[in-house]
Amino acid sequence: MSKILVAANWKMNGSKSFVSDFIREIASNYNQEHYHKLLICPPFPYLDQVSKGLSKTDIQIGAQDIAQFENGAYTGEVSAEMLSDNDCKYVLVGHSERRTILGEKDHIISEKFNMAIKKNLVPILCIGETHDQKEKSLTEEIIDSQITAIADGIDLDKHSKFIIAYEPIWAIGSGLSATPEDAQDVHEFIRYIIKKISKELAESTQILYGGSVNINNAKKLFSMPDIDGGLIGGASLDSSGFLAIAKQ
Ligand code: PEP
Question: Does the C-beta of 61 come closer than 6 Å to ligand 1?
Fold first, then answer.
């Protein structure tokens, strides 16, 4: 069975009819023997529809965000327990669109990450540098600070379960993916940072690559030693294309 995880981030896209077409195609073609493991992160209103539609498969469901609060007077927020109630096992935390467009800062991301772990959801921490930071050779510094900001607020140990998605901001939605070799270098660096917490944790933590992954570049990216799968945005909205990316 493949160890690679292919995760779909639909962002703010979809409709009931889109979801039902997507599920029909995936549910009738997917099997774990011939495909990598799949995770789908739809917008909140479609979690229930996706979860019911895929209930007879091994495909996992995730959310795109989580409240840092447990429950109560937080209008518009969605709690960890509500996500679990809708069969979510995973949740994206700190996606660059939330950091840059919605102004989410490291301390909020750290609280969301914490809440996910506390409530037995697996957070997928998204990190990555801007084009400008890459040009100034600041990638490692940025990655280090983004991981440290989270790790400082929580007692991580060898048993902690989370995923990191390295998503260079310049690669997201641009059609310009990092080369497999460049992505591998950053993933190796991420593993080195996690090793400072625990060697076992560094070995067990999955590190996904995201940023313009498509049918043409997925195979090579997923073959790199420290790339454990992909977080797919735009290309995950086409069910047959998404399945092709997930094919072993
Ligand atoms: C993303 O938003 O997480 C992403 C990777 O987007 P895209 O695949 O469209 O670059």
Answer: no
